[in-house]
Specification:
Blueprint: H1 2-22, E1 37-48, E2 51-59, E3 69-75, E4 82-83, E5 99-107, E6 110-120, E7 126-135, E8 142-149, E9 154-166, E10 169-178, E11 183-190, E12 197-204, E13 214-223, E14 226-234, E15 250-257, E16 262-265, E17 269-270, E18 278-284, E19 290-295, E20 313-314, E21 321-326, E22 329-334, E23 342-358, E24 368-378, E25 380-385, E26 389-394, E27 399-405, E28 412-418, E29 424-430, E30 433-438, E31 443-448, E32 458-475
Parallel strand pairs: 1-20
Antiparallel strand pairs: 1-2, 2-3, 3-4, 5-6, 6-7, 7-8, 9-10, 10-11, 11-12, 13-14, 14-15, 15-16, 15-17, 18-19, 19-21, 21-22, 23-32, 24-29, 24-32, 25-26, 25-32, 26-27, 27-28, 29-30, 30-31
């Protein structure tokens, strides 16, 4: 059976490269990574029978893209994760060039995975199938094959099904490209999860409003009384501080009319302002929280330049974050369970910063959480992190910036956003990543960083005057 052969080959590659991978100083401590090769989109995120399941796009045999597998992690608490056996392999005619992204839903005591089967012929022409696999135990999956083929009006760039249930009807949203090369989110409905009817495009790119030539990884959910469409459009040009990555990730907030299959919505907002964030997926857990995890990477954005490639692995996923709607925007906050990792607390109150860059005793390291409260600010605040990343808030211009040394060419590069005021920062630092939650999650910056080994320095400064309170925890 081809599935068993591919599983064996992947497991052999994990064992073969284990020492090389694990010898990398940039391996992370509390982020999900591939055991070897490349990880990208989170898939099938669900809490099922009390256990969180998080699948992921995986290429075990190289640090580039190709015929993807679905790797699989489980956790009781979003902190302690177990790497499970491979869930899906590209072993059948309808997914032979990759088990592409998708989602999970549970029904009748079964865990059901919906994913895109990618097929290419010798000339590179693409076919696409939306496929189903089911499991009774959450670990062993039986493929049922395609449940939806490509409808008229779309190119074969038609993928990443997200499935949910509302009022005894199942719905599926798919990232699509119309034949006139515009990105869309296509909505389907079903009574049995096997036969699907196209309702229409709930939103999309138009001649008047260019929102790209392809939308990937759409996710539609109700949150705080509103409907949110989360998606990753490709082909939007940079506009000042906006859309500076190769591809974007963001959302619309509005109301979906299921009868007309139209989403009335406001403007597009980027979900994350940093360098590496793409293809997020959400789930509604048993506590009623809408939790999101993203890929800490961007397709076609200097992927071949990451230094971890020398150790046969690349990319990771973000920490889990709870979503809320506040003042017409999505707010992200780290899940409270992450506080279980805290240890060695060090705290300083009312630290005065006047025209200086100041280190605080015990506030340093590579794997930690930082909480910074800005008590007073006159014009400028900055932080230097491991001599590699820099946070700057220019109060006069109302601009918040994350700078880093580029892993592609070593030059300083930056991402910024408008910010009316700065009152707090919560920073999750790992050996080669940083996630910054500004003003209780009003804005978030996610990035990979690759500082020099044993560089642990963290400093706080102001060109004018600032007073801050700082708490640091080592994370383990």
């Amino acid at each position: 059976m081809k599935h068993n052969e591919l599983v064996q080959k992947a497991n052999e590659e994990v064992q073969k490269q284990h020492n090389t991978v694990m010898s990398d100083d940039y391996r992370l401590h509390y982020h999900l990574m591939p055991p070897v090769g490349l990880i990208n989109d989170p898939n099938g995120f669900i809490q099922w029978k009390g256990t969180y399941h998080l699948f992921y796009q995986w290429m075990p045999f190289k640090t580039g893209h190709g015929a993807k597998f679905w790797g699989h992690y489980t956790s009781p608490d979003l902190v302690n994760w177990t790497h499970e056996q491979i869930a899906l392999t590209p072993s059948d005619w309808y997914d032979k060039n990759g088990c592409y992204s998708g989602s999970a839903i549970s029904t009748k005591d079964e865990l059901m995975l919906f994913y895109t089967g990618n097929v290419k012929d010798a000339e590179g022409n693409r076919e696409t199938y939306q496929c189903l696999a089911t499991s009774k135990d959450g670990l062993n999956f039986e493929k049922k094959g395609p449940v939806l083929e490509l409808p008229e009006g779309y190119t074969a760039h038609f993928r990443d099904p997200k499935v949910w249930k509302k009022d005894d009807v199942y719905y599926m949203i798919i990232g699509a490209q119309s034949v006139d090369i515009k990105g869309h989110a296509a909505l389907f409905q079903s009574s049995d999860l096997l036969n699907w009817e196209l309702l229409g495009n709930i939103a999309g790119s138009t001649d008047e409003n260019n929102m790209g030539y392809m939308w990937e990884c759409p996710d539609l959910f109700e949150l705080d009384g509103q409907d949110v469409l989360l998606f990753s459009p490709q082909g939007i040009d940079a506009q000042g501080m906006l859309y500076n990555n190769v591809y974007q990730c963001g959302y619309y907030i509005g109301k979906l009319d299921y009868e007309s299959a139209k989403l009335s919505h406001g403007e597009f907002y980027e979900l994350d302002r940093g360098f590496e964030f793409y293809a997020p997926q959400t789930t509604l857990d048993e506590n009623g929280r809408r939790i999101v995890v993203g890929w800490m990477g961007v397709p076609d954005q200097n992927e071949d330049k990451h230094p971890t490639i020398a150790h046969k692995w690349i990319h990771c996923l973000t920490i889990p974050r709870v979503l809320h709607v506040r003042d017409g925007k999505l707010i992200q906050t780290p899940v409270v369970e992450l506080e279980q990792m805290r240890g060695n607390e060090v705290s300083f109150g009312n630290v005065a910063l006047v025209n200086e860059l100041k280190e605080l005793e015990g506030v340093s390291g590579e794997v930690l959480e930082l909480k910074v409260e800005v008590e007073k600010l006159s014009g400028h605040f900055e932080m230097l992190i491991r001599d590699h990343a820099r946070i700057v808030y220019n109060q006069t211009e109302g601009i918040f910036t994350l700078e880093r040394h580029s892993f592609a060419d070593g030059k300083t590069e930056s991402r910024s956003c408008k910010l009316n005021e700065l009152h707090s920062l919560r920073i999750y630092l790992d050996t080669s990543s940083i996630e910054i939650f500004v003003n209780d999650g009003e804005e978030v910056f996610t990035a990979r960083i690759y500082p020099y080994k044993n560089c642990r320095k963290i400093a706080f400064g102001s060109k004018n005057e600032a007073v801050v309170s700082v708490t640091k925890w080592d994370l383990r």
